[in-house]
Amino acid sequence: MKTLFSLSNLLAVAWFAGSLALLIAIWWVVSLVTEHEIPDPAATWTVFSEMLQDPFYDSGPNDKGIGIQLWGSIKRVGAGFLLGSLVAIPMGLLMGASTVGMRLLNPLVQILRPVSPLAWFPLGLLAFKAAEGATVFIIAITSLWPTLINTAFGVSSIPQDFKNVGKAFGFSRWKYISKILIPYALPHMITGLRLSIGVAWMVIVAGEMLSGGIGIGFFVWDSWNGLSLEKILSAILIIGFVGLLLDKLFNGLQQLVAYDKK
Amino acid sequence: MQPKQFVDMPGAPVLGKNERPVSIEVKDVTIAFPTRGKGVFTAVKNIDLTIGKGEIVSIIGHSGCGKSTLMNAVSGMVKPTSGEVIVNGKRVTGPGPDRGIVFQNYSLLPWLTVYQNVYQAVDAVMPAKTAAEKRELAERNLTMVNLFQHRDKLPSQLSGGMKQRTAIARAFAINPSVLLLDEPFGALDALTKGSMHIELLKLWNLDHREKTIIMVTHDIEEAIFLSDRVVVMNDGPAATIREIVDIPLARPRNKKAIIHLPEYMAVHDRLLSLLTKSFSIEDEGVEYQV
After folding, report:
1. Looking at chain A from residue 131 to 170, which residues have their Cβ under 8 Å from any Cβ of chain B?
2. What fold does the segment set B19-93+218-278 form as a domain?
Protein backbone atom coordinates (compact mmCIF):
# COMPACT_ATOMS: atom_id res chain seq x y z
CA MET A 1 0.00 0.00 0.00
CA LYS A 2 1.13 3.50 -0.77
CA THR A 3 1.00 6.03 2.02
CA LEU A 4 1.57 9.74 1.72
CA PHE A 5 5.00 9.53 3.31
CA SER A 6 6.22 6.39 1.61
CA LEU A 7 9.82 6.27 0.44
CA SER A 8 8.88 6.64 -3.22
CA ASN A 9 6.81 9.75 -2.50
CA LEU A 10 9.59 11.33 -0.45
CA LEU A 11 12.04 10.55 -3.21
CA ALA A 12 9.77 12.16 -5.78
CA VAL A 13 9.61 15.31 -3.66
CA ALA A 14 13.40 15.26 -3.28
CA TRP A 15 13.94 14.99 -7.02
CA PHE A 16 11.47 17.81 -7.63
CA ALA A 17 13.29 20.01 -5.12
CA GLY A 18 16.59 19.16 -6.79
CA SER A 19 15.17 20.12 -10.14
CA LEU A 20 13.99 23.49 -8.79
CA ALA A 21 17.40 24.09 -7.25
CA LEU A 22 19.00 23.47 -10.63
CA LEU A 23 16.63 25.98 -12.25
CA ILE A 24 17.42 28.61 -9.64
CA ALA A 25 21.17 28.01 -10.04
CA ILE A 26 21.06 28.45 -13.81
CA TRP A 27 18.83 31.48 -13.43
CA TRP A 28 21.29 33.06 -11.00
CA VAL A 29 24.21 32.49 -13.33
CA VAL A 30 22.30 34.06 -16.23
CA SER A 31 21.40 37.00 -14.03
CA LEU A 32 25.05 37.51 -13.04
CA VAL A 33 26.26 37.20 -16.64
CA THR A 34 23.74 39.79 -17.86
CA GLU A 35 24.68 42.06 -14.96
CA HIS A 36 21.21 41.91 -13.45
CA GLU A 37 19.46 42.99 -16.63
CA ILE A 38 17.65 39.73 -16.01
CA PRO A 39 16.63 40.01 -12.35
CA ASP A 40 18.00 37.34 -10.05
CA PRO A 41 15.74 34.86 -8.21
CA ALA A 42 15.89 36.80 -4.95
CA ALA A 43 14.74 40.06 -6.54
CA THR A 44 12.01 38.19 -8.40
CA TRP A 45 10.94 36.49 -5.19
CA THR A 46 10.44 39.85 -3.49
CA VAL A 47 8.15 41.04 -6.28
CA PHE A 48 6.46 37.64 -6.50
CA SER A 49 5.59 37.59 -2.79
CA GLU A 50 4.28 41.16 -3.08
CA MET A 51 2.05 40.00 -5.91
CA LEU A 52 0.79 37.16 -3.74
CA GLN A 53 0.07 39.48 -0.79
CA ASP A 54 -3.15 40.60 -2.41
CA PRO A 55 -3.73 38.55 -5.55
CA PHE A 56 -7.32 39.66 -6.00
CA TYR A 57 -7.04 43.45 -5.71
CA ASP A 58 -8.89 45.41 -8.35
CA SER A 59 -7.94 49.03 -9.01
CA GLY A 60 -9.49 49.70 -12.35
CA PRO A 61 -9.40 48.03 -15.76
CA ASN A 62 -5.62 48.10 -16.18
CA ASP A 63 -4.54 47.26 -12.67
CA LYS A 64 -5.76 43.99 -11.26
CA GLY A 65 -4.20 41.36 -8.98
CA ILE A 66 -2.44 38.29 -10.38
CA GLY A 67 -5.19 36.05 -9.05
CA ILE A 68 -7.82 37.84 -11.12
CA GLN A 69 -5.58 37.72 -14.19
CA LEU A 70 -4.92 34.00 -13.71
CA TRP A 71 -8.57 33.18 -13.12
CA GLY A 72 -9.50 35.06 -16.30
CA SER A 73 -7.03 32.99 -18.28
CA ILE A 74 -8.16 29.72 -16.74
CA LYS A 75 -11.78 30.47 -17.59
CA ARG A 76 -10.83 31.28 -21.18
CA VAL A 77 -8.70 28.16 -21.52
CA GLY A 78 -11.49 26.12 -19.99
CA ALA A 79 -14.04 27.48 -22.44
CA GLY A 80 -11.79 27.05 -25.48
CA PHE A 81 -10.70 23.58 -24.41
CA LEU A 82 -14.27 22.48 -23.74
CA LEU A 83 -15.43 23.82 -27.08
CA GLY A 84 -12.52 22.19 -28.89
CA SER A 85 -13.15 18.85 -27.18
CA LEU A 86 -16.85 18.98 -28.02
CA VAL A 87 -15.84 19.15 -31.68
CA ALA A 88 -12.83 16.85 -31.43
CA ILE A 89 -14.37 13.84 -29.66
CA PRO A 90 -17.35 13.26 -31.98
CA MET A 91 -15.18 13.96 -35.03
CA GLY A 92 -12.51 11.60 -33.72
CA LEU A 93 -15.11 8.88 -33.08
CA LEU A 94 -16.42 9.33 -36.60
CA MET A 95 -12.94 9.19 -38.14
CA GLY A 96 -11.96 6.17 -36.09
CA ALA A 97 -15.15 4.24 -36.73
CA SER A 98 -15.52 4.75 -40.45
CA THR A 99 -13.01 4.42 -43.25
CA VAL A 100 -14.92 7.00 -45.26
CA GLY A 101 -14.74 9.45 -42.38
CA MET A 102 -11.04 8.83 -41.96
CA ARG A 103 -10.22 9.26 -45.64
CA LEU A 104 -12.39 12.34 -45.98
CA LEU A 105 -11.34 14.14 -42.82
CA ASN A 106 -7.73 13.12 -42.38
CA PRO A 107 -6.28 15.44 -45.07
CA LEU A 108 -8.28 18.30 -43.56
CA VAL A 109 -6.82 17.56 -40.14
CA GLN A 110 -3.29 17.35 -41.52
CA ILE A 111 -3.63 20.73 -43.25
CA LEU A 112 -5.24 22.64 -40.37
CA ARG A 113 -3.28 21.11 -37.49
CA PRO A 114 0.05 22.92 -38.03
CA VAL A 115 -1.53 26.38 -38.40
CA SER A 116 -0.34 28.82 -35.75
CA PRO A 117 -2.93 30.19 -33.30
CA LEU A 118 -1.92 33.70 -34.29
CA ALA A 119 -2.97 33.04 -37.88
CA TRP A 120 -6.47 32.14 -36.70
CA PHE A 121 -6.86 35.28 -34.62
CA PRO A 122 -8.09 37.66 -37.35
CA LEU A 123 -10.64 35.07 -38.45
CA GLY A 124 -11.83 34.86 -34.87
CA LEU A 125 -12.13 38.63 -34.68
CA LEU A 126 -14.08 38.66 -37.89
CA ALA A 127 -16.42 35.93 -36.73
CA PHE A 128 -17.03 37.10 -33.18
CA LYS A 129 -16.48 40.84 -33.56
CA ALA A 130 -14.79 40.77 -30.16
CA ALA A 131 -11.36 39.94 -28.81
CA GLU A 132 -12.80 37.72 -26.07
CA GLY A 133 -14.55 35.43 -28.54
CA ALA A 134 -11.54 35.39 -30.81
CA THR A 135 -9.26 34.23 -27.98
CA VAL A 136 -11.57 31.38 -27.03
CA PHE A 137 -11.86 30.52 -30.71
CA ILE A 138 -8.11 30.23 -31.28
CA ILE A 139 -7.72 28.11 -28.15
CA ALA A 140 -10.46 25.80 -29.34
CA ILE A 141 -9.17 25.43 -32.87
CA THR A 142 -5.53 24.88 -31.95
CA SER A 143 -6.11 22.58 -28.99
CA LEU A 144 -8.63 20.22 -30.53
CA TRP A 145 -6.20 18.30 -32.77
CA PRO A 146 -4.46 16.05 -30.23
CA THR A 147 -7.84 14.97 -28.84
CA LEU A 148 -9.21 14.37 -32.31
CA ILE A 149 -6.23 12.37 -33.52
CA ASN A 150 -5.93 10.27 -30.37
CA THR A 151 -9.66 9.53 -30.26
CA ALA A 152 -9.61 8.48 -33.91
CA PHE A 153 -6.56 6.31 -33.27
CA GLY A 154 -8.13 4.73 -30.19
CA VAL A 155 -11.32 3.81 -32.00
CA SER A 156 -9.63 2.58 -35.17
CA SER A 157 -7.15 0.39 -33.29
CA ILE A 158 -9.64 -1.77 -31.38
CA PRO A 159 -8.12 -5.26 -31.62
CA GLN A 160 -9.96 -7.79 -33.78
CA ASP A 161 -10.22 -10.08 -30.73
CA PHE A 162 -12.50 -7.65 -28.94
CA LYS A 163 -14.57 -7.04 -32.06
CA ASN A 164 -14.92 -10.83 -32.39
CA VAL A 165 -16.30 -11.06 -28.85
CA GLY A 166 -18.96 -8.54 -29.83
CA LYS A 167 -19.76 -10.48 -32.99
CA ALA A 168 -19.73 -13.94 -31.41
CA PHE A 169 -22.07 -12.97 -28.57
CA GLY A 170 -24.28 -10.79 -30.72
CA PHE A 171 -23.64 -7.51 -28.90
CA SER A 172 -26.11 -4.81 -29.88
CA ARG A 173 -24.71 -1.60 -31.33
CA TRP A 174 -25.14 0.14 -27.99
CA LYS A 175 -23.54 -2.69 -26.03
CA TYR A 176 -20.63 -2.69 -28.47
CA ILE A 177 -20.15 1.05 -28.02
CA SER A 178 -20.53 1.06 -24.25
CA LYS A 179 -18.71 -2.17 -23.39
CA ILE A 180 -16.02 -2.39 -26.07
CA LEU A 181 -15.49 0.80 -28.06
CA ILE A 182 -15.59 3.40 -25.28
CA PRO A 183 -13.63 1.42 -22.66
CA TYR A 184 -10.94 0.66 -25.21
CA ALA A 185 -10.76 4.18 -26.67
CA LEU A 186 -11.13 6.10 -23.40
CA PRO A 187 -7.47 5.96 -22.32
CA HIS A 188 -6.46 7.18 -25.79
CA MET A 189 -9.04 9.96 -25.56
CA ILE A 190 -7.73 11.09 -22.17
CA THR A 191 -4.17 11.09 -23.53
CA GLY A 192 -5.43 13.35 -26.31
CA LEU A 193 -7.20 15.62 -23.83
CA ARG A 194 -4.04 15.82 -21.76
CA LEU A 195 -2.02 16.95 -24.78
CA SER A 196 -4.81 19.32 -25.78
CA ILE A 197 -4.98 21.09 -22.43
CA GLY A 198 -1.22 21.60 -22.69
CA VAL A 199 -1.62 23.24 -26.08
CA ALA A 200 -4.55 25.33 -24.86
CA TRP A 201 -2.54 26.63 -21.94
CA MET A 202 0.37 27.46 -24.23
CA VAL A 203 -1.84 29.35 -26.67
CA ILE A 204 -3.52 31.49 -24.00
CA VAL A 205 -0.53 33.81 -23.51
CA ALA A 206 -0.20 34.57 -27.22
CA GLY A 207 -3.96 35.04 -27.51
CA GLU A 208 -4.20 37.42 -24.61
CA MET A 209 -1.22 39.45 -25.77
CA LEU A 210 -3.20 40.17 -28.89
CA SER A 211 -6.58 40.60 -27.27
CA GLY A 212 -5.70 42.57 -24.16
CA GLY A 213 -8.12 42.82 -21.27
CA ILE A 214 -7.64 40.55 -18.29
CA GLY A 215 -5.43 37.51 -18.26
CA ILE A 216 -1.98 36.22 -17.58
CA GLY A 217 -0.85 36.84 -21.17
CA PHE A 218 -2.03 40.41 -21.00
CA PHE A 219 -0.31 40.71 -17.64
CA VAL A 220 3.02 39.64 -19.19
CA TRP A 221 2.67 42.21 -21.97
CA ASP A 222 1.60 44.91 -19.53
CA SER A 223 4.60 44.17 -17.31
CA TRP A 224 6.87 44.47 -20.32
CA ASN A 225 5.42 47.86 -21.07
CA GLY A 226 5.91 48.76 -17.40
CA LEU A 227 9.46 47.38 -17.66
CA SER A 228 9.02 45.06 -14.69
CA LEU A 229 11.00 42.00 -15.61
CA GLU A 230 10.48 40.61 -12.12
CA LYS A 231 6.75 40.48 -12.81
CA ILE A 232 7.35 38.81 -16.17
CA LEU A 233 9.53 36.15 -14.58
CA SER A 234 6.98 35.63 -11.81
CA ALA A 235 4.26 35.23 -14.43
CA ILE A 236 6.38 32.72 -16.33
CA LEU A 237 6.74 30.66 -13.15
CA ILE A 238 3.03 30.84 -12.47
CA ILE A 239 2.22 29.82 -16.04
CA GLY A 240 4.59 26.89 -15.68
CA PHE A 241 3.13 25.73 -12.39
CA VAL A 242 -0.46 25.97 -13.56
CA GLY A 243 0.49 24.04 -16.69
CA LEU A 244 2.06 21.37 -14.49
CA LEU A 245 -1.07 21.18 -12.33
CA LEU A 246 -3.33 20.84 -15.37
CA ASP A 247 -1.12 18.06 -16.68
CA LYS A 248 -1.18 16.29 -13.31
CA LEU A 249 -4.96 16.56 -13.27
CA PHE A 250 -5.25 14.77 -16.60
CA ASN A 251 -2.56 12.34 -15.60
CA GLY A 252 -4.72 11.41 -12.62
CA LEU A 253 -7.69 10.99 -14.93
CA GLN A 254 -5.59 8.74 -17.14
CA GLN A 255 -4.73 6.51 -14.19
CA LEU A 256 -8.38 6.36 -13.32
CA VAL A 257 -9.51 4.99 -16.68
CA ALA A 258 -6.52 2.72 -17.32
CA TYR A 259 -8.01 -0.76 -17.40
CA ASP A 260 -4.78 -2.76 -17.36
CA LYS A 261 -3.73 -1.56 -13.95
CA LYS A 262 -2.61 -4.36 -11.72
CA MET B 1 -7.91 -27.89 -6.41
CA GLN B 2 -7.24 -31.56 -7.04
CA PRO B 3 -8.75 -32.82 -10.28
CA LYS B 4 -10.61 -36.07 -9.95
CA GLN B 5 -9.58 -38.90 -12.19
CA PHE B 6 -13.07 -40.09 -12.97
CA VAL B 7 -15.20 -37.34 -14.34
CA ASP B 8 -17.62 -38.65 -16.86
CA MET B 9 -20.71 -39.31 -14.87
CA PRO B 10 -21.99 -42.83 -15.19
CA GLY B 11 -25.61 -43.21 -16.06
CA ALA B 12 -25.86 -40.53 -18.70
CA PRO B 13 -27.41 -41.99 -21.83
CA VAL B 14 -24.83 -42.54 -24.50
CA LEU B 15 -26.17 -42.59 -27.99
CA GLY B 16 -24.61 -44.84 -30.55
CA LYS B 17 -22.92 -43.28 -33.51
CA ASN B 18 -25.84 -43.77 -35.87
CA GLU B 19 -28.58 -42.83 -33.44
CA ARG B 20 -27.54 -39.22 -33.06
CA PRO B 21 -29.57 -36.54 -34.79
CA VAL B 22 -27.47 -34.37 -37.08
CA SER B 23 -26.17 -31.19 -35.49
CA ILE B 24 -23.72 -29.75 -37.99
CA GLU B 25 -23.35 -30.31 -41.70
CA VAL B 26 -20.44 -28.88 -43.61
CA LYS B 27 -21.26 -29.29 -47.28
CA ASP B 28 -18.56 -28.97 -49.92
CA VAL B 29 -17.10 -25.89 -48.25
CA THR B 30 -14.26 -24.00 -49.89
CA ILE B 31 -12.87 -20.89 -48.23
CA ALA B 32 -10.58 -18.52 -50.09
CA PHE B 33 -9.24 -15.12 -49.11
CA PRO B 34 -8.10 -12.39 -51.44
CA THR B 35 -4.47 -11.59 -50.68
CA ARG B 36 -2.63 -8.41 -51.42
CA GLY B 37 -0.97 -8.72 -54.80
CA LYS B 38 -0.92 -12.49 -54.83
CA GLY B 39 -4.43 -13.18 -56.03
CA VAL B 40 -6.46 -15.59 -53.98
CA PHE B 41 -5.35 -17.84 -51.13
CA THR B 42 -7.47 -20.95 -50.74
CA ALA B 43 -7.40 -22.06 -47.11
CA VAL B 44 -9.62 -25.13 -47.24
CA LYS B 45 -11.20 -26.89 -50.18
CA ASN B 46 -14.21 -29.15 -50.69
CA ILE B 47 -14.73 -29.99 -47.05
CA ASP B 48 -17.61 -32.35 -46.24
CA LEU B 49 -18.27 -33.16 -42.62
CA THR B 50 -21.35 -34.25 -40.70
CA ILE B 51 -21.38 -34.07 -36.92
CA GLY B 52 -24.06 -35.60 -34.71
CA LYS B 53 -25.71 -33.95 -31.74
CA GLY B 54 -23.68 -34.36 -28.57
CA GLU B 55 -20.59 -35.46 -30.42
CA ILE B 56 -17.15 -34.16 -29.54
CA VAL B 57 -15.04 -33.80 -32.67
CA SER B 58 -11.47 -32.56 -32.82
CA ILE B 59 -9.90 -31.02 -35.88
CA ILE B 60 -6.19 -31.65 -35.91
CA GLY B 61 -3.48 -30.65 -38.35
CA HIS B 62 -0.34 -28.63 -38.72
CA SER B 63 -0.20 -24.90 -38.31
CA GLY B 64 -1.71 -23.10 -41.24
CA CYS B 65 -3.76 -26.06 -42.46
CA GLY B 66 -6.95 -24.07 -42.20
CA LYS B 67 -8.43 -25.87 -39.22
CA SER B 68 -9.34 -22.61 -37.50
CA THR B 69 -10.73 -21.29 -40.77
CA LEU B 70 -12.95 -24.35 -41.07
CA MET B 71 -14.20 -23.83 -37.53
CA ASN B 72 -14.80 -20.14 -38.19
CA ALA B 73 -17.05 -21.17 -41.05
CA VAL B 74 -19.16 -23.08 -38.52
CA SER B 75 -19.12 -20.16 -36.09
CA GLY B 76 -20.11 -17.79 -38.87
CA MET B 77 -17.12 -15.51 -38.42
CA VAL B 78 -15.93 -16.49 -41.91
CA LYS B 79 -18.19 -16.93 -44.91
CA PRO B 80 -17.50 -19.91 -47.16
CA THR B 81 -16.55 -18.95 -50.71
CA SER B 82 -18.61 -21.90 -51.92
CA GLY B 83 -20.63 -24.58 -50.21
CA GLU B 84 -22.59 -24.14 -47.03
CA VAL B 85 -22.64 -24.92 -43.34
CA ILE B 86 -25.88 -26.01 -41.72
CA VAL B 87 -26.29 -25.97 -37.95
CA ASN B 88 -29.46 -27.37 -36.40
CA GLY B 89 -31.10 -27.37 -39.80
CA LYS B 90 -30.37 -23.72 -40.47
CA ARG B 91 -27.87 -22.33 -42.89
CA VAL B 92 -25.11 -20.36 -41.18
CA THR B 93 -24.98 -16.76 -42.34
CA GLY B 94 -23.17 -15.24 -39.37
CA PRO B 95 -22.37 -15.77 -35.72
CA GLY B 96 -25.35 -16.73 -33.59
CA PRO B 97 -26.21 -17.53 -29.99
CA ASP B 98 -26.75 -21.20 -30.83
CA ARG B 99 -22.97 -21.48 -31.19
CA GLY B 100 -20.71 -20.57 -28.26
CA ILE B 101 -17.11 -19.76 -29.06
CA VAL B 102 -14.03 -20.11 -26.90
CA PHE B 103 -11.27 -18.17 -28.57
CA GLN B 104 -7.65 -19.19 -28.80
CA ASN B 105 -6.39 -16.26 -26.72
CA TYR B 106 -9.34 -16.16 -24.29
CA SER B 107 -10.54 -12.79 -25.65
CA LEU B 108 -11.86 -11.56 -22.34
CA LEU B 109 -12.64 -7.86 -22.19
CA PRO B 110 -9.86 -6.58 -19.92
CA TRP B 111 -11.86 -3.68 -18.49
CA LEU B 112 -14.67 -5.94 -17.25
CA THR B 113 -14.53 -8.18 -14.20
CA VAL B 114 -14.79 -11.94 -14.55
CA TYR B 115 -18.46 -11.71 -13.62
CA GLN B 116 -19.16 -8.85 -16.03
CA ASN B 117 -17.45 -10.69 -18.88
CA VAL B 118 -19.91 -13.54 -18.45
CA TYR B 119 -22.89 -11.35 -17.57
CA GLN B 120 -22.56 -9.08 -20.61
CA ALA B 121 -22.55 -12.10 -22.93
CA VAL B 122 -25.67 -13.49 -21.23
CA ASP B 123 -27.29 -10.05 -21.39
CA ALA B 124 -26.55 -9.73 -25.10
CA VAL B 125 -27.88 -13.18 -25.97
CA MET B 126 -30.90 -13.32 -23.64
CA PRO B 127 -32.35 -9.81 -23.50
CA ALA B 128 -35.78 -11.17 -22.53
CA LYS B 129 -34.62 -12.58 -19.19
CA THR B 130 -34.85 -10.46 -16.05
CA ALA B 131 -31.69 -9.02 -14.53
CA ALA B 132 -31.96 -11.48 -11.63
CA GLU B 133 -32.21 -14.47 -13.99
CA LYS B 134 -29.22 -13.28 -15.99
CA ARG B 135 -27.27 -12.71 -12.82
CA GLU B 136 -28.12 -16.18 -11.56
CA LEU B 137 -27.06 -17.69 -14.89
CA ALA B 138 -23.71 -15.91 -14.88
CA GLU B 139 -23.04 -16.83 -11.28
CA ARG B 140 -24.03 -20.46 -11.76
CA ASN B 141 -21.67 -20.84 -14.70
CA LEU B 142 -18.84 -19.19 -12.80
CA THR B 143 -19.46 -21.55 -9.91
CA MET B 144 -19.26 -24.53 -12.28
CA VAL B 145 -15.74 -23.54 -13.30
CA ASN B 146 -14.79 -22.71 -9.67
CA LEU B 147 -14.40 -19.01 -10.29
CA PHE B 148 -17.22 -17.70 -8.14
CA GLN B 149 -14.85 -16.41 -5.46
CA HIS B 150 -12.80 -14.66 -8.16
CA ARG B 151 -15.78 -13.03 -9.87
CA ASP B 152 -14.79 -9.46 -9.04
CA LYS B 153 -11.25 -9.75 -10.38
CA LEU B 154 -10.10 -8.30 -13.66
CA PRO B 155 -8.71 -10.65 -16.30
CA SER B 156 -5.22 -9.21 -15.76
CA GLN B 157 -5.32 -10.59 -12.22
CA LEU B 158 -6.01 -14.15 -13.37
CA SER B 159 -3.73 -17.02 -14.37
CA GLY B 160 -3.96 -18.45 -17.87
CA GLY B 161 -6.07 -21.37 -16.69
CA MET B 162 -8.49 -19.08 -14.86
CA LYS B 163 -8.83 -16.86 -17.93
CA GLN B 164 -9.63 -19.88 -20.03
CA ARG B 165 -12.18 -21.08 -17.47
CA THR B 166 -13.81 -17.67 -17.61
CA ALA B 167 -13.98 -17.92 -21.38
CA ILE B 168 -15.50 -21.40 -21.10
CA ALA B 169 -18.02 -20.20 -18.50
CA ARG B 170 -18.95 -17.35 -20.85
CA ALA B 171 -19.49 -19.76 -23.74
CA PHE B 172 -21.54 -22.19 -21.60
CA ALA B 173 -23.59 -19.42 -19.98
CA ILE B 174 -25.38 -18.55 -23.20
CA ASN B 175 -26.39 -22.22 -23.37
CA PRO B 176 -25.49 -22.86 -27.01
CA SER B 177 -26.24 -26.19 -28.63
CA VAL B 178 -22.83 -26.12 -30.31
CA LEU B 179 -19.58 -25.23 -28.63
CA LEU B 180 -16.60 -24.22 -30.74
CA LEU B 181 -13.19 -24.30 -29.13
CA ASP B 182 -10.26 -22.85 -31.04
CA GLU B 183 -7.06 -24.34 -29.59
CA PRO B 184 -8.54 -23.67 -26.19
CA PHE B 185 -5.76 -25.16 -24.09
CA GLY B 186 -2.80 -24.41 -26.33
CA ALA B 187 -1.32 -21.75 -24.09
CA LEU B 188 -1.65 -23.70 -20.84
CA ASP B 189 0.96 -25.78 -19.06
CA ALA B 190 0.52 -29.56 -19.08
CA LEU B 191 -0.94 -29.84 -15.56
CA THR B 192 -3.46 -27.05 -16.02
CA LYS B 193 -4.34 -28.48 -19.40
CA GLY B 194 -5.10 -31.86 -17.85
CA SER B 195 -7.46 -30.40 -15.28
CA MET B 196 -9.11 -28.21 -17.94
CA HIS B 197 -9.92 -31.33 -20.01
CA ILE B 198 -11.66 -32.74 -16.99
CA GLU B 199 -13.51 -29.48 -16.31
CA LEU B 200 -14.72 -29.41 -19.89
CA LEU B 201 -16.02 -32.96 -19.77
CA LYS B 202 -17.66 -32.23 -16.43
CA LEU B 203 -19.59 -29.33 -17.93
CA TRP B 204 -20.50 -31.41 -20.95
CA ASN B 205 -21.78 -34.17 -18.65
CA LEU B 206 -23.74 -31.77 -16.47
CA ASP B 207 -25.59 -30.83 -19.62
CA HIS B 208 -26.40 -34.51 -20.32
CA ARG B 209 -23.88 -34.63 -23.18
CA GLU B 210 -26.25 -32.73 -25.40
CA LYS B 211 -23.87 -30.06 -26.56
CA THR B 212 -21.99 -30.70 -29.75
CA ILE B 213 -18.37 -29.69 -29.38
CA ILE B 214 -15.86 -28.96 -32.12
CA MET B 215 -12.34 -28.38 -30.94
CA VAL B 216 -9.33 -27.30 -32.94
CA THR B 217 -6.09 -28.64 -31.51
CA HIS B 218 -2.67 -29.91 -32.40
CA ASP B 219 -2.34 -32.11 -29.38
CA ILE B 220 -2.92 -35.78 -30.22
CA GLU B 221 -3.41 -36.97 -26.62
CA GLU B 222 -5.89 -34.18 -25.97
CA ALA B 223 -7.83 -35.04 -29.12
CA ILE B 224 -8.04 -38.72 -28.22
CA PHE B 225 -9.01 -38.19 -24.59
CA LEU B 226 -11.81 -35.76 -25.39
CA SER B 227 -13.19 -36.72 -28.78
CA ASP B 228 -15.50 -39.21 -30.38
CA ARG B 229 -13.89 -38.58 -33.74
CA VAL B 230 -10.74 -36.81 -34.85
CA VAL B 231 -10.66 -35.03 -38.20
CA VAL B 232 -7.11 -34.97 -39.57
CA MET B 233 -6.45 -32.20 -42.06
CA ASN B 234 -3.96 -32.20 -44.91
CA ASP B 235 -1.48 -29.37 -45.04
CA GLY B 236 -2.61 -26.20 -46.73
CA PRO B 237 -3.00 -24.29 -48.90
CA ALA B 238 -6.29 -25.69 -50.19
CA ALA B 239 -6.34 -28.15 -47.30
CA THR B 240 -8.76 -31.05 -47.41
CA ILE B 241 -9.73 -33.69 -44.88
CA ARG B 242 -7.09 -36.38 -44.87
CA GLU B 243 -8.95 -38.86 -42.74
CA ILE B 244 -11.54 -39.03 -40.00
CA VAL B 245 -10.43 -41.33 -37.20
CA ASP B 246 -12.97 -42.87 -34.80
CA ILE B 247 -11.95 -43.06 -31.18
CA PRO B 248 -13.32 -46.41 -29.99
CA LEU B 249 -12.98 -45.70 -26.29
CA ALA B 250 -16.05 -45.99 -24.07
CA ARG B 251 -16.94 -43.11 -21.79
CA PRO B 252 -16.37 -42.39 -19.01
CA ARG B 253 -12.71 -42.39 -19.85
CA ASN B 254 -10.01 -42.49 -17.25
CA LYS B 255 -7.01 -40.56 -18.43
CA LYS B 256 -4.51 -42.79 -16.69
CA ALA B 257 -6.17 -46.07 -17.58
CA ILE B 258 -6.92 -45.53 -21.25
CA ILE B 259 -3.35 -44.99 -22.35
CA HIS B 260 -2.60 -48.65 -21.70
CA LEU B 261 -5.49 -49.90 -23.79
CA PRO B 262 -4.56 -51.40 -27.15
CA GLU B 263 -7.32 -49.34 -28.82
CA TYR B 264 -5.74 -46.19 -27.49
CA MET B 265 -2.32 -47.14 -28.74
CA ALA B 266 -3.66 -48.07 -32.16
CA VAL B 267 -5.48 -44.76 -32.53
CA HIS B 268 -2.49 -42.83 -31.23
CA ASP B 269 -0.23 -44.56 -33.73
CA ARG B 270 -2.64 -43.95 -36.56
CA LEU B 271 -2.93 -40.22 -35.78
CA LEU B 272 0.79 -39.83 -35.34
CA SER B 273 1.58 -41.45 -38.65
CA LEU B 274 -1.11 -39.40 -40.42
CA LEU B 275 0.39 -36.23 -39.02
CA THR B 276 4.06 -37.05 -39.42
CA LYS B 277 3.89 -38.35 -42.99
CA SER B 278 3.26 -34.88 -44.20
CA PHE B 279 6.49 -33.61 -42.82
CA SER B 280 8.74 -35.84 -44.75
CA ILE B 281 12.12 -34.31 -45.32
CA GLU B 282 13.45 -36.93 -47.69
CA ASP B 283 14.45 -34.33 -50.22
CA GLU B 284 17.10 -33.19 -47.82
CA GLY B 285 18.54 -36.66 -47.69
CA VAL B 286 17.51 -37.27 -44.10
CA GLU B 287 15.29 -40.15 -43.16
CA TYR B 288 12.64 -39.14 -40.72
CA GLN B 289 11.81 -41.66 -38.07
CA VAL B 290 8.96 -41.65 -35.65
Report:
1. 161-162, 164-165, 167-170
2. Rossmann fold (3.40.50)
